[in-house]
Amino acid sequence: xxxxPQRLTILHTNDxxxxxxxxxxxAAEISAMKAAAGEGPVLLLDIGDHxxxxxxxxEGTMGQANIDIMNLTGYDAVTIGNNEGLTFSQExxxxxxxxxxCPVVCCNFLESATxxxxxxxxxxxxxxxxxxxxxxxxxxxxxxxxxxxxxWDVLDPEEALREQCLLLAPQVDILxxxxxxxxxxxxxxxxxxxxxxxxxxxxxxHMLEKPQMIDGTAVCGxxxxxxxxxxxxxxxxxxxxxxxxxxxxxxxxxxxxxxxxIAPAAAIHLQRGREVxxxxxxxxxxxxxxxxxxxxxxxxxxxxAVRRFTGSSFSLVNSGQxxxxxxxxxxxxxxxxxxxxxxxxxCIVQLTGKDIRTALEQSLMEEYRNKVIYGYxxxxxxxxxxxxxxxxxxxxxxxxxxxxxxxxxxxxEKLEDGREYSVGTLDMFTFRTGYESIANGREPVYLLxxxxxxxxxxxxxxxxxxxxxxxxxxxxxTT
Length: 479
Description:
Blueprint: E1 6-13, H1 23-36, E2 42-46, H2 56-61, H3 64-73, E3 77-78, H4 82-85, H5 90-97, E4 109-111, E5 124-129, E6 132-140, H6 144-149, E7 152-154, H7 157-168, E8 174-180, H8 183-192, E9 198-201, E10 212-214, E11 217-221, E12 228-236, E13 244-252, H9 262-276, E14 280-284, H10 297-310, E15 314-318, E16 329-332, H11 333-339, E17 346-352, H12 353-362, H13 366-369, E18 386-389, E19 391-395, E20 407-410, E21 413-414, E22 420-426, E23 442-446, H14 452-460, H15 465-469, E24 474-476
Parallel strand pairs: 1-2, 2-3, 6-8, 8-9, 9-11, 15-22, 19-24
Antiparallel strand pairs: 1-12, 4-7, 5-6, 10-11, 12-13, 14-16, 15-18, 17-22, 17-23, 19-20, 20-21
Helix pairs in contact: 3-9, 10-14
């Protein structure tokens, strides 16, 4: 009688982005798949961006809630995404990941000061399950200029992974890459790297119903927000033989599922997060309205905050960063977090008057104000109008925006199309999203790790800031 083949089941998640409402359903689905595997070995992996500071649980506990959930879920290894690496300082990441109970693998992420991975990370790991040796390495997207400001060196992912794969392949039965690089990069890796059984992907939120087989490597991705759970089953006919992929795909997670461990833990972290964010940051003697379709005091306050923090003569920000008006009275950290949740950083660019004019003209157009933006750290609903500080703009609302011939003044002098200006703005724009002409700015200086809500907090505490926010910058020629 032919013996049963030896099997290894690999379960994988990616880009959960602190969707705590899905963490208990995901854990329940994992438990069901482990039960279905019987006594066969199961490996559980996460491919990064488990954390997102838009969530109260993550913001209020500085990521400790995510670590607790990952530990309770039983991950065997994880890698990091840009939402871990770029939204926390080195010190914060050390505090966060010191408590994780599994390896954090990433081979292209090094401390600038030492040229080595941080103490909580390793370039690779070799795990053993029922005599099967599994080699794991990982890589994260190389936002080089951003990471350098936080004290990290990020290596070319493919070169770093090639080195690790050559090292691991002779030592293991199965070689897996945890790739927070995006689907196009994963497809290229599959073509260029040898001996890799599977590339488990994330970052671009791709969901592959079945793995893409490229030169013998299974390229996989399980979507986003915990809506899917990825599963691979490898088999070999006899000990010492080669493993082959027997099954693979993604299973939709039923959001109504629950279990007895993760659900109560998530509820506790939500309560703790809310308690931390009850800190009073300011007391306002008036409410500040918000208008995503035009000028408003709360949008102006955000523009003021960016201009003062960047030290620029004027600023350009989109009002869609704000999710509602600022109320009168006690303003808490949690309130600013809810109103401005995006992990967006201020920056300074050198921008021509012509590009500034283009962006301001676009701000008068509904197609721009109502544009829906995905990614780039943006957690709002739509782009919104441009809010400014340090400028005065005269416009005629009765004509088409591109026929407007708006007049723009900087410090009382007319804006010159051919002149270059130092502008305080948002890192999101430099990725050529939203008001695209702002991305033409030269010499961007990114001011990490400060978020826009941090700047709002400072501006609310500055005497006279609320009065200034009510002064019009956009002046209609019909009034």
